[in-house]
Amino acid sequence: MNNERNRSMKEPHPRAIKKLTNKEQKERWPKLTKQNKEFLRNYVELGNATESWARAYPKSTRFSASRSGSAFLAREDAKDYIQYLLQEYEHLIEMEVWEIMREVKKIAMNPDINSNTKLQALKMLGQGKGEFVEKSEVVNKDIIVGLIDD
Is the pLDDT of residue 35 over 60? Predict the structure, then answer.
């Protein structure tokens, strides 16, 4: 882990893929505009289509951002570009435990999240602190199996 942190910024990560040039990207995804790509980069970062669309297209309404973002994500070229971005950024996506717990806490405290999801998030937070851990205890190691012949 420390080797990865001490690695020179110029040295590529061992799992990093070859980054495509702008020309190669235009050939592979000819219909994606600069704003489309910005939306998809935002989506990979945020995981929220509405917010990502609103950032890439600031003049859009919340309603249109929601509909447009969802519809755009259904396109094959968008799915392919997202896969490219995920591979390109895979080595950057690794999260520390505290980062995961911070995100789970946001879910648990969000009033707009349904109660089942909140309960799962609270359970994960508790487990992260060593609570709510299922324990099983073996009382008797010897098991006697008897056969009854009728």
Answer: yes
